[in-house]
Design goal:
With 191 residues, the protein is mainly β. It contains no helices and 21 strands. The strands form four sheets. Strands 2-5-8-11-14-17-20 form a seven-stranded parallel beta sheet, with no helix packed on it. A seven-stranded parallel beta sheet has the order 3-6-9-12-15-18-21, with no helix packed on it. A five-stranded parallel beta sheet has the order 7-10-13-16-19, with no helix packed on it. The mean pLDDT is 85.
């Protein structure tokens, strides 16, 4: 946890390389320990993900990821393949691969500000269950929220009280251009 706040605590991996092979650092923050809380940072300079989360009982809050950090078409500000976590009060900018990808169970996405270019996805929920998306502001994105089942069934998704404006698509359920999508999507609630 940063005590100085995101404007004064900056993680920039732009010119960093991995000691093992000298390749550029693709992920600024890898969270693999259960119970990790990451709070109050600005993250810059990544090639693939600002945050890669693969654990249980995590919390990512009060962080800033500026938009357009990388040209990598797979990049996202936040990639979650974890269970039982909270993503709240972050300011997340769009990357070419989208802003946030959630492929997990028992996740709360609350009070975040998501913005950027209108050709990218804001929040992609794919193969996930028991996800609550509440009180987020999503502006200037292609698909503000997309729920799909390309990687597995998507069910028990609650999308409530979000401010979604100036996007190409507000909420998209299913992904029509995907031949592998089994459309196993159940109990999606938009309130």
């Amino acid at each position: 946890t940063s005590t100085e706040g995101p404007e004064n605590t900056i993680i920039n991996v732009k010119d960093a390389s991995r000691p093992s092979d000298g390749d550029p650092v693709s992920r600024a923050v890898d969270i693999e320990e259960s119970g990790t809380k990451f709070n109050g940072f600005t993250v810059k300079g990544f090639n693939e993900y600002a945050f890669n989360v693969d654990n249980k009982h995590f919390q990512i809050s009060n962080n800033v990821v500026p938009k357009g950090i990388t040209e990598n078409s797979r990049s996202s500000s936040l990639y979650v393949v974890a269970n039982q976590g909270t993503i709240k009060n972050n300011k997340l900018g769009a990357q070419p691969g989208g802003v946030m990808q959630v492929r997990a169970q028992h996740i709360q996405v609350k009070n975040n500000t998501i913005s950027g270019s209108n050709k990218y996805r804001g929040l992609a929920i794919d193969g996930a269950s028991d996800v609550e998306v509440k009180n987020n502001t999503i502006t200037g994105i292609g698909d503000a929220i997309q729920v799909s089942s390309f990687l597995g069934a998507a069910n028990d998704i609650l999308i409530v009280e979000n401010e979604i404006q100036n996007n190409k698509i507000g909420v998209e359920v299913g992904y029509e251009n995907d031949e592998n999508n089994n459309n196993d999507i159940t109990n999606i609630q938009l309130l």
